[in-house]
Specification:
Length: 109
């Protein structure tokens, strides 16, 4: 049975470039299928091209569905995922990076 959670993206500008690649690489370490639902779209969470196409941005709400034998372990990793990134546009413009939590859990289904 799949595990599902809804998250808010906390980092600026979102799951683009390096943070997006880190997300995809982490997901690819696991056998489970990863599906992202966002704005009435559904796409593969293990595809960097899909992330670039759909542009999950800061403050965006995404729904993650993980299905497979290691689904719980991967979901736990994603709940606690941290990356070097920016808190805001101002931090981005000033090249002020720090280790930040990527997601905030909105609801736990």
């Amino acid at each position: 049975m799949a595990v599902e959670n809804t998250f808010e993206i906390l980092i600026y500008p979102g799951l683009h470039s390096r943070p997006g690649k880190e997300f995809v690489h982490l997901c690819m370490e696991y056998e489970s299928l990863v599906t992202i639902k966002m704005n009435d779209n559904e796409f593969d969470g293990k595809s960097f091209l899909s992330l670039l196409k759909h542009k999950p941005s800061q403050s965006e709400i995404i729904h993650l569905i993980i299905d497979g034998k290691d689904e719980n372990e991967l979901m736990e990793k994603l709940i606690n995922l941290e990356t070097m990134s920016h808190k805001s546009r101002e931090d981005y413009d000033n090249e002020n990076e720090e280790l930040l939590q990527v997601f905030r859990l909105v609801e736990n289904e």
